[in-house]
From TrEMBL:
Signal peptide: 1-19
Biased composition, class Low complexity, residue ranges: 349-364
Region named Disordered: 345-364
UniProt-listed SUPFAM superfamilies: DPP6 N-terminal domain-like (SSF82171)
Protein name (database record): Uncharacterized protein
Assigned keywords, A-Z: Signal
Recorded superkingdom: Bacteria
Amino acid sequence: MKRMTWAALSAALLVPAIAAPMASADSIAYVNKTDGNVYLSTPDGSRQYQVTTTGGYSDVSQADDGTMIALKGVRLNKLARDGTVLADFDTPVSDTRDAPAKTFYGPFDPAISPDGTKVAYTYYYMTQSQNPGCFPPTCVVAINEAGTGYSYSDRQTSWQEPGLGYHSGWRHPSWVDNDMTMISNPSHLPNRDIILDRISDGGNGHGNMVMNWTSDTAENNPHVSGGDITRDKRKLAYQSGENDSTLTVSYVPAFPTAWKDGDPNTDEIRVCYRYSNPAGGAFGVPTFSPDGGAIAYHAGDGIHVAAVPAFGGDCTLDGATPAPPVVIPNGVEPDWGPADVPAARPAANTTPTTTNPTTKTNTTKPSLSVKVLAATRRAGIKLSVKVTGKGKLSATAKSGTKTVGKASATVKKPGTASLRLKVSRKGKLAVKITWRPTGGTAITKTITAKVN
């Protein structure tokens, strides 16, 4: 394999820091690890939209029309963009009993098909067996298996239902198109790192056929975990390294269209470069932008976005982002789709009222008041924000359409909180302050700060 390796933090001088291309209609669905809710964000992180309010979600995936599948406990919720639960159902592996009563664990890693009709998910099977011809404990054998199950996106679906089923041995599904998934990270070796599962062929859905594709053994890479493929089938990105300590971007010279004796009639992938040194020690599963020009992934500090080279016919670093920035703090499990972020919900008045003893009428207390304490390029913009309850405060400073500063804080009780935005420009900046009261609707206020 022709390859180039690249540690992101040590190679920052190799490639100019080019921002990832951001299509205005794209969105990243993700889970906020602080409150366990599903959110949507523009790819640059400048506009957020809270989808759910009940918490308890751990993963989310979105279809092309914007409908989503989110994992809540051992159940799958199909969600509309406004948070409406369109379906709430379990799977054949959704067992809530404690071990060892249960042998199936899951579902995990739910991925909705581009047309929104099907869901693929990871499951695990763990039990013990014993050879009756010898004596325990030497003959007690642990059986550990993993696989990918399939379901319709609006109801519980048996594995015996024609056309879907399961595929044992590989996990972390990602849809190539509406009829094929890419699954990886085999639970038994020596199997290929990545295989392809065509749902409609009548056999793969029940694990009867292996459509081997490729493995990444460059530089003794120990394994491949979850990944994604571009819609034109020319780029791959996936977790790699020991304990997902690296993230690999690869070029696909030719996507397989035929198999001979179980193996594809195609060239291997070409490993182009790897990111390393993630915050928290591990990379999450990457997701490509709809146009294939960028990837998003989470690490311990939130969701990062990186530009990906065009790969005109071979590996290159030209156009790659050397040190991808955090665009969504506290975000995990991103999934990039072509649907836009919805417009903000109308702000509701969630503040208490008091009665004027003279007029006997109700007057509303200010729900959000902001005072600028300082505004200099060196010290940043210092804000004093008064709120009437606990929740989350955030602020974004813009010069025209360019975001030049951000800050956030958690408010644990009513009163005054402080925010300090480090800004990269002087002059008149528009500062948007957002308060998300716990259990209430977000309230925003925009002010102008003159930075000297």
